[in-house]
Amino acid sequence: MQAFEYARVDSIGDAVALLAKANGRARVLSGGTDLIVALRDGRVQADLVVDIKFIPEVNELSFDAATGLTIGAAVPCYRIYGDAAIARMYPGLIDAASLIGGVQIQGRASLGGNLCNASPAADSIPALIVHNAVAHIAGPDGRRSVPVEAICTAPGRTVLQPGEFLVSLHVPPPDSGFGAAYLRFIPRNEMDIAVVGAGVAVQLDDSHTHFVAARIALAAVAPTPLFVPDARVALIGKLVSQEAIEDAARIAQDAAQPITDMRGTASYRRHLVGVLVRRALAKALARAGAVVDLA
């Protein structure tokens, strides 16, 4: 492993000061399950690693029915799916958090780290996108908030500027008639990278028969996790039906920009987008309490 300096900080101000001083040659350690491997393999270069795990804000995990869910950037996955109230209110996030690596990895890996790693195949990012999650960022110029769908700009790259780091994620509270799900396809086992992933969230009307809102996001079919706004537009106001599900799946397939690699061909990935979006929509609708029979 390359040589680098290590700094443990316990305040946001100290972290920002060290990151800004490093002129882009520092990396943030929140979960570390990707960073340590990348440093060891030489895929990432750093003169300084700033450990933010001792900052209180990045360890916050709280839910309030009025304001929603706050997930600190360093909160490990097991704490999220281990909280009964959060698991009940945000099952779509739990779908993703429980898929990141194996059980041992989930003891340290964080959704914040998964987001900042900016892998096109990341499992948590589509789930965060469909839940309308917002990233709270601190930096030399103060704090700012960015929708999660706008964070990743290219494989391994984000909107974070020199001196900035992710403090927390905020997810709004779900209303009655809300449902979400995340599904992925992998070729071998739970430790593999997704060939395709699909996150879906729906909001139904009071009768639970029509779409009021919907969001679809995909993994591993574009240079970044892909939000599909056209699918949302196509579903709003529609009757919950197999036809509506098929329309959304087709739109998601059209939006996908897959490549051919060792995990699958572009055409195979596009086919999987349709399959997974249909299945995730059906699962999200069931969780939302849809009264329409989709069998």
Q: What is the element layout, followed by pairings?
A:
Elements: E1 5-8, H1 12-21, E2 26-29, H2 35-41, E3 48-51, E4 61-64, E5 68-72, H3 77-81, H4 84-89, H5 91-97, H6 103-106, H7 111-117, H8 124-130, E6 134-139, E7 142-147, E8 152-154, E9 157-158, E10 165-171, E11 178-185, E12 196-204, E13 211-219, E14 226-227, H9 229-235, H10 242-255, H11 266-288
Parallel strand pairs: 1-3, 2-3
Antiparallel strand pairs: 4-5, 5-10, 6-7, 6-10, 8-9, 11-12, 12-13, 13-14
Helix pairs in contact: 9-10, 10-11
What general outline do the C-alpha atoms trace? globular
Taking the sheet with the most strands, its summary is: 5 strands, antiparallel
Number of domains: 3
CATH fold-level label of the largest domain: Uridine Diphospho-n-acetylenolpyruvylglucosamine Reductase, domain 3
CATH architecture of the largest domain: 2-Layer Sandwich
In whole angstroms, how far apart are the ends? 54 Å
Detail the poorly predicted runs. none
> How large is the share of residues in beta strands?
15-25%
Walk across the major sheet and give the strand order: 4-5-10-6-7
Q: What series of H and E elements makes up the topology?
A: EHEHEEEHHHHHHEEEEEEEEEHHH
Q: Specify the helix fraction band.
A: 25-40%
Number of strands: 14
Number of helices: 11
Task: Give me the secondary-structure category.
Answer: alpha+beta
* Rounded mean pLDDT score: 94
Quaternary structure annotation: single chain
Rg, rounded, reads: 19 Å
